[in-house]
Amino acid sequence: MYRRIIYLIIFIFSFQVLYAQTVLMNENKPDTTYTPTKFGVNSKHFFHSFLAFGFVFGEEQVTKFGGTNALTLGLRYKYKIANFFAVGSDIAYQRNRISFPTHDLTNKNYYKSYNFLSDIYIRFNFGRRGDIMGKFLDLGVYGAYTFYNLNHLDENPEDNAHFSKFIYEEHQLTYYNRFNYGFVARMGINQFVLFSQYRYSSIRNNKDYRNIPSWTVGLQISMHR
Amino acid sequence: MVLSNIAGVYKGKPIGLATEAEFLLARTEIATEPFAEEEYWLEAVEWADKNGADIINSSLGYTNQRYFNYQMDGTSLVARAGNLAAKKGILVVNAAGNEGDLKYWKYIGTPADADSVLSIGGIDPETGYHMSFASYGPTADGRRKPNVSAFAYAVVADKEGLTRAYGTSFACPLTTGFAACVLQMHKEYTAMQLFHEIEKSAYLYPYYDYAHGYGIPQASYFFKENKSQTVAGFRVSLSKGILEVDMLNPVSCSLKKNYMYYHISDKNGKLKEYNLIEVYQKKALELNIAKFDKTDIIRIHYKGYTYEKTLSTLEE
Q1: Which residues from chain B sit within 8 angstroms of residue A128, using beta carbons?
Q2: Exposure pattern of B188-209 as b/e (b: 16+ CB <10 Å)?
Q3: pTM for this structure?
C-alpha cells in the first residue's frame, strides 16, 4: 500500500517537470497600428441595446400615477455624420400599462398593451469627446403597433353570497387604436438617458371616452461602455 | 499619496526616494473639467519651468474619454507640452496608465505617448513581471512605450498614515525619485541624457517590450557595477525551421522567477510578437520562425544577457 502511494507521489512530481516552461505573457499580436474604425461608440456606425422605464404624467381623474407606466426594451442604431450631429433609428418592444382610478367596489382596473415601436431621430452632441457617447440631445418621431392588449377589472361584488370577487378580462380590444404615433426627446450623458415620449395620436378610437394622458417621462439605460 | 513616494518621511525615516529634494506642487485637476484640465497641465509645466524645476512627476493620463486610440501619437496638447518641457531641460516622468486589462482600451494614455516623456509601466512586485492593469505600448505611431517600469504596488502615506496602493501612478514617482538621485549624482546630465541613461540602466536593456519597456531602472548601473551578464546562459540553434533554445546549465524546477523574455521585431524595431516564459527544463523554447520575415530580428533576454540575431543569419 505504502509503495503504491510513493509511486503515485513520484508520478505526480515527474508529471510536473514534463513542462519545460510556463507561459506568463503571450502577446502574439500586439496592437501596433491603431486606425480609425467604422464601428464604435463614437465612430460612423454604432448599435446598442437599451432598457427604459417611464411614468405617464397626466390628470389623476383619468389615470393613476405610478401604475401608469411604460417599459421598453430596444435596439438603437446611430449613424454619425459630424462630431456634433448624428441620425439614427430605434426598434423596440414596449409594454404600456394604464391604471385607471378605482372606486369603492373596484380593486384594480388597468389596460395593458404590448407594442412594436420604431423611431427615427436626429442627435446633437455637445462638447468635445473621445471614444465615448458623451452628452447629447435626441429629437425624433415614433410609431407603435399594438399586437396585443387587454383590459383588466377586479371588483368586489356588493351583497353577493356566492362570489367575493369578480374579475373581468377582455382581450384584443377593438375600441383602442392599434397604431399610435408621436414625438420623442432624449437627453443623455453616456449610458444614462432621460427620455420623454409624447403620444400625438389618440389611444382610443371612441371619442366618448376621455383620452389617456400623452406624456411619458423616464430613465433609459443604454447597454454600451 | 503619490508625493509620499518621492518626499515621504514617516516617523523620521524617509519612505520616499528623494526626500531632500525641493518640491513645487501644482494641482491641475479639482473637479471634472474635461479638456480644461489639459490646459491646466500645460500651465503647470510652464510654471514649473519658470521656477526652475529639473524633473516633473505626473501621475495623470488622458484616454478614451477624450481621445481615440489612434490619437495616442504624441500630438495631444499635453503630449506637446511634455515635449516642450523636455526641450526646456526638464525630465518629464509620466505614468503609462492603468487600462491594461480593459478590452476596449489597453493602451497608454497621453502625455505618456509623448516622445520625450519618460513613460512608466507597472510591474507586480510579487511576480516580478508586468502588472495586468498597467497599460501597454506602443504609441499609435509605433514608438516604444512604456520606456521603463517600476513597481505598481507601493507603500504610500495618506491622511490616515501608511497604506498600500496600486497603480502606475505610484510606479511613476518611484522612478521620479530614482531620477532625482541620478541627477544628484550626475549634475552634468541634460534632461534627455538623464532619460536615456535611465533607460540604459533598466535590467532588461537592450531588450524591451511593450509591457515592460526596458524594465526597472537599476542604481548599480550608475555605480558602474556590472549590471548584466556577458555570457549567455543558453544556446540558440535552428533545426528544420524551428528555433530551439537550450539552457546551458541545469535548471531547478523549484527555482522561481527564472524568466526568459523573447520577442520578434521587424528591422525597424517594431515588435511582431513578445513573450515571457518561466523556464523549468534544459529545453526552454521551441519557436517556429517560418512565419516571420527573414529580415526580422529575434531578441532573447535571460538573466541580464540579451541575445540578438536577424533571422536570415541563423544557421541550421
Answers
A1: 34-35, 66
A2: ebebeebbebbbbbbbbbebbb
A3: 0.83
